[in-house]
Every structure is written in C-alpha cells, then in structure tokens.
Description:
10 strands; eight-stranded mixed beta sheet; 15% strand; disordered C terminus; two-stranded antiparallel sheet
Amino acid sequence: MTGRILMIGCGNMGGAMLARWLADGLSPDSVTVVSPSMRVMPPGVHVVAAVPDPDDFSAETVMLALKPQQLGALKTPVFARYAPKLLISILAGVEIAALDRLSQAQAVVRAMPNLPVAIGQGVVALHGATDDGAARATAEALMTPLGLVEWIAAEAQFDAVTALAGCGPGFVFRFADALAKAGQALGLPADQAARLAIATLDGSARMAGAADVLAGGAGGPGREPGWIDTRRAERARRRRCTGHPDDPHAGGVGTAQCGDGGKRPRRPRAALVSRAAL
C-alpha cells in the first residue's frame, strides 16, 4: 500500500520506526534512507548521502524524519520537484502550511510518535488537511504496526498530544523508579523491588486498558470491590476523626489527635517510609 518509501533522516525515532516496519514485514528493498553521514542501516535498506534527483528516482511516500532545525536543507530545487502521493512528517513544531511549500506532494500528514513505538506499543497521533481517503489510509496503515493510531481534529492539538503521550513515558519511568526505591527502602532487595514495580505497572496498565473507563472514573475498576476509592477513604477518616455516631471505629485504641481536635488512626511506620521514598 505504501509503495517505495524515501526516508529523509533516520535518527533515534526514525530508526525505531523503521525497525518496527521491517519486523512487521516491510521489504527493506522498498526503503531508501537519505543520511549525509551514510549511517549504517538494517540489511537491504538503501542509503544515499543526498536526496536523489526525481528524474532518476521516485517514491510514493516520502517521510521527513530529520531534526526540525535541518529543514532548511530541503528547501532546494531538487526536492521542490518531488510529487509523492503522501508526505509524512514527524518534525515537531513544523506545521502543515510550511510542509506544503517544500514539494508538490499530493497529500501531507503530520505524525507525532512516542518512544514505545520502538517495541510496537507506542502512540502515533496523525493530522492532515487532506480529504484524500487513500492517502489517509496509507498513513494509518504505515503507523499501525507502531501501536495505537489516533487522528486528531486540529493541528494545534499536537501540543496536548506531546504533553500527554510524548512526555508520558518519562513520567511513567520516573514513577516506576520511585516505586522500586520505595520497596527497597522497606527492606526488599533492589532487583526484586524493581521487578515488582515493573510488573505492577504492566499489570495495572493492562487492566486499565481492558476497562471501559480509567480506574478513577465512575463505573470503572476504581469503583469495583477490592479497589481503593480515595474519596471514600477520606470520608471514612473524617468520620473517625469527628466520632461519627454511625462509625463503630470512631475513637478507640491506637488513635492520635486529628488536626481538628478529633481522633485518627496512627499511620504505620511503613507508610511513612514509603511516602518518604516516593
């Protein structure tokens, strides 16, 4: 469906995408990469130092995977004569209006992938001003092996996608590290704490993915028996602090003064250590 692909640039993200495409069955002979440094590519992939003359080379799909600050190098008479069916760009911050002026592409689509595309479990947001159904289908088919593909309604929404899906993996990695360190602080061996932290996040993500809504939403797993509802727990704590007549545990043994003069259960030392570690 994609035909011959010309990739201009193939750094960390472009290389990860190419590796997944090849693993999914894309023929390496159908890909030509423009790399001024003649970077080593997977076996079978063609590598050239400069954009080929369109009189001698044609590609149905052109993908821009260079750095945004290198875009000026494409403002040449050679590239201006290219007329691919689809031009895809993963250049952050370069809008479709600017991409339209680079070549005679029939359709232009922007793509925003995140880091887990390297293992086929990423997110790719797409946006195109074109109503060319074939071009949109080609773009989606090309990105599907990388993970979840979502079309966004407005180009300005790439900022939100970047904040959520682009930065999200970094926050998850930091949280996993914090969980592991908390477990280690509580006495677990470091390697065991790390395995537990990763397995906990992996299982929780899979469970959330199988739910109708996220854990904290009404009707989602966060409302099911066995899950902790923090709002309900807080209400229960306040009833214990104020000696609510319906709460049989109000006051009693093992309590400490609440800030409002009531009582609350003493926090276990382990919880204090865990919070400090996080």
